[in-house]
Design goal:
118 residues
């Protein structure tokens, strides 16, 4: 049942994002920022944790999950380091995921040799 919940919740998040992209004049970058900020706000309101427990990877993999990860990192850093934690907490919490995305993106570009659109 965990796989089914992850599938339909992740699919719903992606479908709603696609609708937002097609039915509004918002640029993709702004939609991405909206998703990350929404995840951080839901994390701050203690709503995202039960949602992630229910949906698993369907909730933690999309950009909403990245926003929640940033929020949790900032929250922990503020508790341990004080005010400076606001600036460093998000970087520490998300460093592994960002590094992996960069490395695997680079490896994929070497294998598939991407070309610019004409």
């Amino acid at each position: 049942m965990d796989y089914i919940n992850a599938f339909w919740v992740g699919g719903l998040i992606c479908a709603l994002t696609q609708i937002l992209m097609e039915k509004t004049k918002m640029l993709p970058g702004r939609i991405m920022v909206l998703l990350v900020c929404s995840g951080a706000v839901l994390g701050a309101l203690q709503i995202y944790e039960p949602f992630r427990e229910f949906a698993g990877a369907g909730a933690s993999v999309p950009l909403l999950g990245f926003g929640d990860t940033l929020w949790k990192g900032i929250e922990e850093a503020v508790q341990s380091d004080g005010f400076i934690g606001i600036f460093m907490g998000g970087f520490t919490a998300s460093a592994v995921g960002i590094s992996a995305a960069l490395v695997f993106g680079y490896l994929a570009s070497l294998i598939f040799q991407p070309k610019m659109k004409k």
